[in-house]
Amino acid sequence: MKATPKIGTTGEFTFVVAAEHAITFATDGMPAVLSTPNLIGLIERTARESLQPFLDADERTVGTEIELRHLAPSPLGARVTIITRVIHAEGRAVSFSVEARDEHELLARGVHKRGVIRTGSFAKRVHGKTKS
User: Fold this and answer.
1) What are phi and psi of 24, to 5 degrees?
2) Are residues 80 and 100 in contact, defined by beta-carbon separation less than 8 angstroms?
3) E strand or H helix at 11, and its extent?
4) Which of 30, 36, 59, 120 has the largest count of CB atoms under 10 Å?
5) d(Cα 108, Cα 117) in Å, to the nearest integer?
6) What is the maximal distance between C-alpha atoms in the chain?
7) What are the strands, taking DSSP E only, across 17-125?
8) HSE on the CB side for 100, CA within 13 Å?
9) pLDDT digits (tens, 9 = 90+) for 70-129
10) Taking the alpha carbons of 128, 130, 47, 39 in that order, is the dihedral positive or negative?
């Protein structure tokens, strides 16, 4: 890593909930709302992008843990903002507090952890699992 991210380093991402972000079981009166798996993916993206300036060219970050409370629904068309904030960074491990809000309320909050990997050694490890 070029540098260790400082405590308080933030990432922010805003999006509008679209059909691609919604639950797949919105039928029989169940409204289409932001799904938890899609929210988690966007939280990870936000955290990952916030670390990009600290990485060497051959490094990436991968999610290693997420603890999330999805507290409220967010309907199609709602504007959602995700904020990630570094709360701990040691060696190749970085922890974030995360939250998501729409125009009305807090949607989710939790903790997300990422690990810094070197692409070459990671690719070798993955390739070792695909040999027959």
Assistant:
1) -95, 0
2) yes
3) strand 10-16
4) 59
5) 28
6) 52
7) 59-70, 79-90, 93-101, 106-118
8) 33
9) 999 999 999 999 999 999 999 999 999 999 999 999 999 999 999 999 999 999 999 999
10) negative
Cβ atoms of residues 76 and 22 within 8 Å: yes
Provide the pLDDT for residue 131.
76
Q: What mean pLDDT comes out for the span 43-61?
A: 98
Mean pLDDT for the chain overall: 97
Asked if residue 28 has pLDDT above 90, the reply is yes
Backbone phi, psi, residue 88, to 5° = -160, 135
pLDDT band at 24 (very low <50, low <70, confident <90, very high): very high
> Exposure string (b/e) for 54-82, b if CB count within 10 Å is 16 or more?
bbeeebbbebeebebebeeebeeebebeb
pLDDT of residue 132 exceeding 70, the answer is: no
Residues 6+ apart with CB under 8 A from 20: 38
Task: With beta carbons less than 8 A apart as the criterion, state whether 47 and 112 touch.
Answer: yes
Query: What is this structure's pTM?
Result: 0.94
